[in-house]
Each structure stands twice: as C-alpha cells, then as structure tokens.
Amino acid sequence: MNASMPLQDSGLTDSRLLARLVQAGTLVLDEQDALRFASHGACELFGVDGEATLRHRWRDTGEELRVRCWPRSLIDGHAHFGKADVTTPTGVRPIRYEMHAIADGARVHRAVLVRDRARLLPTDRALLLASEAQTNRHVLTGLVHAARGPLNNFNLTLALLSAAIARAGDAGSELAARRERYLEVLRNEAVRLAACIDEIHALTLRHQPTNEAIDVAALSADCARVLRHGATMREVVLDLDVPGAPVMAFGDPRLVRLALLSFAISVLDLTSSGGRVGWSVTLADDACLVAMTTTESALPPALAASLFRLSCTAESDYSAAITGRLIIEAQGGEVTILDSVDGQPGLLLRIPARA
C-alpha cells in the first residue's frame, strides 16, 4: 500500500487492511525494525501503559517476535504471518501477528497487526456471526429434513386412525364425539408443527433481493409472534397495535422483516422488567409508519449517538438498530428518534407505500 496515496484512491485490498488496522492492535516499524508507532490496543496487549514504554522495551520484545527473521520483501498484496510467546510485565502472552509492507516512496515500513491468540476478541464478532449464519443454514437444512420424516409418519398414522374410528360405527355417541375432538386437536397440532418446520426451512434459503408490495401490518404481527416468548421471559409486555386491514408498503420483504426484528429486539433489550414496548402500524400519506416505543423515561444516549453512524462494525454498540436503519434507508425510507417530550421515547420507521 502506498502511504502517500489518498485513501479514496486505495484499492479494495488496501481498504480492508486499513479497516483491520483501525480495529486491531497495530505496530509500525521502520526499515531498521525500530518501533515508530504502537496503538493503544497493542500497548495493552504487551502489558505496558503507553507507546514510550513499549519503545523502551522493544529490543527484547522484537527479539521474542523474531522481527529480524521476517522477510524484507513481500509479493504485492501478501502478508507474513507468525506467532510467538512474548514476555510482558503482566506475564507471558501468546501473540499472533500479521505483517504487511507499506511503501512510502523508496522506503518500506512495516505495519504489524497483533492479537492475543488465546482468546476471542470483540472484533471477532463479525466473523463469528458470519460463520454461524453459514453453518446454521446447513444445520437447519438437515434438521428440517430429519423432522419431515416423523411428521409424514404422524400424518399417515393420523389418517389411518381417523379411518379406523369412522369404521367403528358408533357415530353420534359420546365416545365418538370425544374421539373426534381428540383427532381435531391432533390435526391442528400437526398443521402448527408443519408451519414451524416451513419457517425453519425459510431461514435456509438464500436471499434473492426484490422490491414488492408488503403488508407491514401482517409482517409486524408475525414478527411480534416470534418475539413474544422472549419478551415474556424478560417480563416485558409487547403491545402490538395494528389495523385489521392490510397496510401496504414497498420494499424487500425479507430485509424489511430483518429491520423490524432488529429494531424490536433493540427496544426490548433496553426496556426494564415490568415495562412495556409498544408496536404500532399506521398509514400516513405515501408511507407506512411503524412506531416502536418503550416505557423507559428516555432512550440510552449511546443509541441516539450511534444510530446514524456510517462507520458501524458488527461489534459496535446497538449494531442491530444501526443495521435496521441501513435497511430502511435502502428501501427509500427513514428512521426518526421519538423524543420523550412528545410521548413515550422510541423509534419511528417510515417505509414508502409506493415503489
């Protein structure tokens, strides 16, 4: 990466490196392997209180990292990887490092990312979530396949039982009526079980972006249904207020569902036990309005401060709400913070009613 090159002209590889430099423990070494910069995270990792202290200890630390054995040149875009057990004032730390060459004119400096290889870090959250999402798709596919076999056998046995009862010939008796009630319960539960399996199966399907009409009232009711158990366990009342008639908007149904769930979970998480979360859907002019409010006296200042951030990462505070805001804006809508001065604090989502 050319250090003199403007950031906006950097390539994708450079941008990814810069993102990692911002989030990770970072060292910068000059051509003589002297320490020129150490980030706060790197100083913490090496057990020192600041860059000056680490620079004073660098000779011994560099020896343990075997810096002089690192390659002097790298193929463009490649990195040098390694690990070492480094003695620090707080004990021996198992270090993993990744070294990149940074060209600055005729000089080549080294940018080194360092981390504790013995534990997971907050910055690993995005990788963990991505890996979990990828593996869950395969796991859920297997579970759905495994569940459909018993369900098919259950329905077949239910049909045989129903036919056998019909042949018994005691129609009209109290016993026959009781049997019919039991059969009806079994039929209804089988339908509910099949619907749950279908919902699990839908989570395994790859998302195909669309822009179509969405009944936000029905979608909200469905989202509230899957969240109500969690809300009850938190001793929070989830109060849904939607019209009986459809409230139509336009957007990507799967993404809008994700946004609604993300906002609702964020508001539920900040509501204390014994509180209430309101969820209402209305149609106003050319937009569908979704309001999510809480009985808390105010939204956390950190939520208001970070909701409209452009530099959000997966480990950021309120990343779910920020992701929801990104989705709503991508549909042509907007998100507004509701102030407690005008009523209960919360969030207002505006989703266009026309394509």
Q: Key features?
A:
355 residues; alpha+beta; Beta-Lactamase; Heat Shock Protein 90; 5-stranded antiparallel β-sheet; 5-stranded mixed β-sheet; 9 helices; 12 strands; elongated; disordered N terminus
How are the elements arranged and paired?
Elements: H1 12-23, E1 25-29, E2 35-38, H2 40-45, H3 51-65, E3 80-88, E4 91-104, E5 107-116, H4 125-167, H5 174-203, E6 212-215, H6 216-233, E7 237-241, E8 248-251, H7 253-270, E9 276-284, E10 287-294, H8 301-306, H9 319-330, E11 334-338, E12 346-352
Parallel strand pairs: 7-9
Antiparallel strand pairs: 1-2, 1-5, 3-4, 4-5, 6-8, 9-10, 10-12, 11-12
What structural class do you assign from the helix and strand content? alpha+beta
Helix amount, in percent?
40-55%
Shape: elongated
| Average pLDDT rating | 85
The SSE string, one letter per element, is HEEHHEEEHHEHEEHEEHHEE
The CATH topology of the largest domain is Heat Shock Protein 90
What gap, in angstroms, lies between the N and C termini? 43 Å
Radius of gyration: 29 Å
Largest sheet: 5 strands, antiparallel
**What proportion strand?**
15-25%
What is the helix tally?
Answer: 9
Corresponding CATH architecture of the largest domain: 2-Layer Sandwich
Q: Which homologous superfamily in CATH is the superfamily of the largest domain?
A: Histidine kinase-like ATPase, C-terminal domain
How many structural domains? 3
In total, the number of strands is 12
Major β-sheet strand ordering: 2-1-5-4-3
Low-confidence stretches: 1-12
CATH class of the largest domain: Alpha Beta
Quick gist of this model?
The chain has 355 residues and is α+β, with helices and mostly antiparallel strands.
